[in-house]
Amino acid sequence: MLDKIKIKCINRGLTMTELAMKLGISREYMYRKIKSKDNDFLKKTEKILNQPDTFVSEL
To answer: What pLDDT digit, counting tens, does each position of 7-28 carry?
Structure first.
């Protein structure tokens, strides 16, 4: 999942740090949330990255 998010960030010209800032959390906490596959968090990330709903369902 982390690699998919990194690729989407690169495609949109965002760093992981910038994504964390947009989510209002630290980069470290964001990595923990991604690793835990927190569905609510992934939906917020999905909105920021403008991904289709299937992004979360690929877990």
So the answer is: 999 988 889 999 999 999 999 9
Query: Which pLDDT value is given to residue 28?
Result: 96
Is 37 in contact with 59 (CB distance < 8 Å)? yes
What are the residue ranges spanned by the domains of the chain? 2-46
Q: Give the sign of the dihedral formed by CA 51, CA 59, CA 40, CA 16.
A: negative
Helix, strand, coil percentages, rounded to 5, for the chain? 70, 0, 30
22 neighbors 47 (Cβ within 8 angstroms): no
